[in-house]
Here is the input.
Amino acid sequence: MKTFARKPRPVEAIATLDKNAKVDNYRASPGLHAGAWRAVLPPLLAVVLAFAVTSLPITISGKNPLLAYWALLKGALGSVDAIAFALNKSTPYVLAGVGVAICFRSRVINIGSEGQIAIGGVAASWMALSFSYLPSLILIVAALFASAVAGAAWAGIAAIIRLKRGVHEVLGTLMLNFIGTLFVSEVLHGPMGEVGAGFPQSPLFAQAAWLPSLFPGTNLHAGIAVAFIAVVLCHVLLWHTPFGFRLRLLGSSHTAAAYAGVSFARAVLEVMLMAGALAGIAGGIEVLGVHYRLIQGFSQGFGFNAVAIALLAGLNPIAVLPAGLFFGFLEAGALAMQREIGVPSSLVFVIQGLTMVFVLCAMGIGLKQQRV
Amino acid sequence: MLEMRGICKRYGSVRANHNIDLTVPQGQILGLLGENGSGKTTLMKVLFGMVRAEAGTVSFKGKQLIGHSPRDAIAAGIGMIHQQFMLVDAMTVAENVMLGWARAGSWLRTREMAELIRSASATYRLELEPNAVVDELPFGHRQRVEIVKAILRGADLLILDEPTSNLSPPEVAGLLGVMRRLREEGRSVIFISHKLGEVLDICDEVVVLRDGEVAGSCSVDGATRAQLARMMIGRDIRHAPRLAKLAPGPDLMSVEGVSIRDRSGFERLRDVTFTLREGEILAVAGVNGNGQEELVEVLAGLKIPMHGRITLGGRDITADGVTARLLAGLAYIPVDRVNTSLVPGMSIEDNLGLRDFERSPLCRGPWLDRAAFRKQAMLRIAEFGIHCGGPDVPAQTLSGGNQQKIVVAREISRRPRVLIAFQPTLGLDPGATQFVIDQILALRDAGGAVLYISSELEEVLILGDCIGVIYDGRLSGVVKRDEADMTKIGLLMAGIQEATA
Amino acid sequence: MDTTVLIELLTASVRIATPLLFAALGGVLSENAGTFAVGLEGMMLMGAFGGAVTTFVTKNVAAGLLASAICGAALGVVVAVATARFRADQMVTGLAVNILAFGLTSFLLRGLFGGRAPVIVLSTLRPLAVPFLSRLPVLGEVLFRQPALTYAAFILVIPIHFFLLKTRAGLTLRAVGENPAAAFSVGTDPIRVRMVAIIAGGAFAGLGGAVLSLQEIGTFTDGMTNGRGFIALAAIIVGRWMPFRVMLGCLLFGAASAVALNIQGWGLPVSSYIIQMTPYLIALAVLSGVGRSARMPASIGKPFTRS
Here is the structure.
């Protein structure tokens, strides 16, 4: 009985193998091994470089970058409450990001997370408001399910106009972002709005609809667990199912996919629906776990952040978790930094944008190998 | 006029050019012979300035060319006609000629250009319409655009890189005529080819490259094919004896009246009809671009024909998709390894499972059985002698020959009833080519039917039990091997049907 | 329909189309040279910011316009280096610089002024009547009583058209977008051409942003471009990458926005948010109609490497 290490073996040894040998210790998906450092280093460097370059505008504005970054760090990790806040913030990023990562892997450029989150939130809110008499667990599951379906449908629209009319998904999902956000405002000024409130929002949901907190006494809601499960699920789907194989084929070459009998239309639709569902759930989690109501503008900015996170993670589902956490902690810290030092929190976008550009450059010149 | 001395160029660990000397006097046609990978194209890229050599000198018309770019080479009077044309398909002939040419003026002088093109057309008998869009021109005409471009820019030395690969015999004759005309005018030509006959026909001197070095040079007078071939390959060519073959079996796959148009409405296949029999190879010759690509795509299920019927084993599969045909016993080796038959970024075992990953044993229920992938890969690597670093390395780390072994291993191991092979030996060295041919013969001997399409007439003649020619979307002249007539085949390839008495 | 209402709508269409047109013309240069102009949104925003802040500080509109072009071009430099030199993915780089621009402008608005955004109130550019032509019946109102930058934008279409189709430099640029290897073989440096096209495009897009902050609205607010850069992209596709047709595309989207804005005053029983959706819905509808027949420059999206 022979065992296989991960190191490549010379041809001679392979040729003399017993053809009925049992295969042990085999790992199908890229795990942690020597090559992993080469995968992780470029994004790390990109982040460091982004922070370094961003210190320039901070200095121009008259503040000390080191103090600013220290406040950032404290704001993100300084207390249990801070960490809980950051984890909550990371949840929709991870969910939307992993969906986008799968899309990008199949060369489907889906930037519609914002619209999908918005529509998902509307669906979850509707469920929460209409069925508040249901027991909590059933209500929450049903609401999240509704948000998944709604988000999937919204992404599906973009997929269909891509397949039927050749409208590139970048433009399609983008337009749907705007339409989705406007739709939220529309329902808040109509059927779901709270009369008499100074701000467009829905009535507060009944307690039964609130996401339970993971650790009593903290604000950390159960959403992060959902995100974690989603990441693992996507990883397994990508590397261990025919569905994932099809997506990887599609992502490397359309002609190879056609040659292998993979239906382009079916795969694009499948992957968009999945990404839309994940983003929809993120929207549902936001309204059920953070705001406890539908509120105007709750989905803002998620679309492009999801893209940034997917890129930083090298389009690898497992890596989306740390990447999403990074973004979440970054934003949580930035708010604290603004409070303490007076450096505007919009700096966060500068760091994100620069990180993306650097990672893209590294990928472009082949520093960051992508395993298909 | 041209003197290159001691040219050295490496690509990584490969010595593409090593200490090469080359001299071309004025008014001479020099033939540069060599197999794939012998260094001919690299040498010309060095001459033309597209690539920088590590050592060596180039002097042209008495002046040294150091660190020059293509622009400098053109200005000095060197013109290059690449194997893959450097033309902008969406633009007209005139626009392509004007591109990057100072004489066209900052504000384009289109009318003047059109005149120049027309007069050059007439002088060299290279008919060209200046306002035609390049995309709509046939292959031979596109080459003319390249030649006119070079001549108009005053090239004294013209480099032609494998110019006749995709030309029919009459077009080849036309090209050779142009070269003679250039020689008469006192210009020189470097004619790169692997076709001995043409080289002996037109060249004055021949230089043979092998493995990046000069293997020999001689004058054409008195040189024979055998001599030159020996210099190219380094050993005597021995023609492999044809294996005796059994009588072919019953009809297996029939194609009737298949026609297809492309996106612009141009008919690419016209009424193609033929039959494949068990244990028989139908080899189809033809210059590239005459419908071969469309034919294999229709057969593989990637394109739907407008008219016609395809049956396999008695069942009509015309409307079947790729997967259905796969299950019916059809295998397909495409010409393009990089984008189609392989995924370079995927591991070898994934590539081996490319066609069957949705079925058992590679797929069990909703999951991929990774152990089954691994097992299959190990088997194939051993059986077919694929030289690699392990089943989980990406396919792109393999050499071209080993990559093709993966494709062949995958398609043939399924014991298909019918194999469609489209130029499966393209870009392979002689060893790998022999391997592919052996596998295909083995499949035939085991009872499979094979459709073998290639632009290399030599291969078609070696492999085919039945031989046909495809020209302009029509398949004609399907004859048994013993009845094949070289002249007739050559004429058919140029589209010349025999007139009925 | 009342003629005055029609004239108002048409006038508004032309005016609203102006920033789109500047940005779209910049994108035409970039895309014809082979680079997706997804970063137009960010370049416009940079220009809007640069123009507004410079005019606010220097009280000089001309300085503001210059600054807007420079700011847009600066973002163009980032895109150019990343995509042409480092072969980064063009679409995603565009998205990245959009995020970067949003953050940078928002940050600097506060950071440059001691931590709190100043109240910028600029007098918007007034319409200038062209002496003789503005007295024409309908067209006079619509076409010849527009602010200066609108004239500039529409006039700009002509030199760009001639540049692309009638000059050798324009031919080279288009060749780089179709087949950079071919351009390289005749001595052009495709990377340099692409970079110049992107940066020039950024300058024009920056001017488009200045139209927003200096001519239309009179101030700068975070993210004020609000998707116009992407509408400009849609206009490029609708106009099949050629300047005059792109101009028509911009007018179309300008008209859609004008109708959306004005309809609210007509008291129709349609919610204002639905109305605000109309430009985007129209964009989708038009793009679906154009669909596959649009033939984009063949090498767009593919980085060029010397082999």
